[in-house]
Write a structure and sequence with these properties.
Two copies of one chain form a homodimer.
Chain A: H1 6-20, H2 28-35, H3 39-51, E1 55-58, E2 64-67, H4 76-84, H5 107-123, H6 127-131
Antiparallel strand pairs in A: 1-2
Helix pairs in contact in A: 1-2, 1-3, 1-4, 2-3
The structure holds a DNA duplex.
DNA sequence: GCATATGGGACTATCTTAGTCCAATATGCT
DNA sequence: AGCATATTGGACTAAGATAGTCCCATATGC
């Protein structure tokens, strides 16, 4: 249904990788080999993440990147914002360009609320949660198939 | 941030329009003029909605479309499913094609949960909610700005 | 049979996305 | 100072998804 781009997925992986290095400065090369993502892509992503202030950069020899904050203080919402841009769920609900259908379109308002709900969900998730298996989400778990089985009962 | 396609937005508008006609059969032409969406687009969307069982179709002269269920029984999640396809928030979390990054990728799991959270949010919203201003959402309301009107004649 | 509709699909132009590469700048070390 | 290393910024291309249109077959009512 709703999508995030691959870049966002990769970017999240990179952040998770950096989180695992606990503050150490890693070059783009390190990250690339650590995550197995193509180097140029890693470079691109790291630039974006640096501009979004999610990572801190050090130039020059022995330079590299490190998280700008502890993982607990980086939310999934921020990550999506930085990597996807501040896009909203519908076009007309974010830009000033209101469509001419507006009048007969009481829909956008509702989509906006849905959007806000989704945003709220993303706000509750931190990079730390993404990094190590926390499983403290307010949600049931139908059928998680994915190699490693994790023992966890759905609380709530 | 997260996006739905324009088609989904339009499709929702169409459903809202049909909901307002309370069961009456409307031709694609009716819907097009009622929503001011380009006719070919409306036709395309109605076909998709019919295949997704959200609307019922009547062929032949005097034929047309009507909601297949009362608006209260159509959820936003269904709408998104039908119009966007059963895509998941990340690619690798939906297909069986596990990426080779998997091992170092404890991320997908978390995205899946986020995905499920989002889905839960969409499940609570019905077409009836989208149709008339209900404002009975379990959510605070920061700042809904929706003001200026811009001409965007992309079709018609 | 004719007018009116939907059904299914093909088709194209356009936009976005993914991914790559290059020149400029900054830093550490010898 | 000079060289190697690394980020910065931007341009660039190829591939894919999206939006939108159109055509022909089929079904129904008069």
């Amino acid at each position: 249904m709703l999508r995030i781009s691959k870049l966002t997925d990769y970017g999240t992986m990179i952040l998770v990788y950096l989180a695992a290095q606990t503050g150490k400065v890693c070059s783009a090369n390190d990250v690339a080999s650590g995550t197995r993502i193509a180097l140029p892509t890693v470079q691109k992503l790291l630039k974006i993440l640096a501009r979004g202030d999610l990572v801190h950069s050090l130039r020059g020899a022995d330079g590299g990147y490190a998280l700008s904050r502890p993982p607990e203080r980086i939310s999934a919402a921020e990550i999506v914002d930085v990597l996807e841009g501040p896009l909203s769920i519908t076009e007309c609900s974010m830009t000033d360009s209101q469509c001419e259908l507006e009048e007969g379109c009481p829909v956008g308002d509702a989509w906006q609320k849905i959007n806000r709900t989704i945003r709220g969900a993303l706000d509750t998730v931190t990079l730390a949660d993404l990094a190590h298996p926390p499983h403290e989400f307010p949600l049931p778990q139908p059928s998680a198939r994915r190699g490693k089985i994790v023992e966890r009962r759905s609380h709530d």
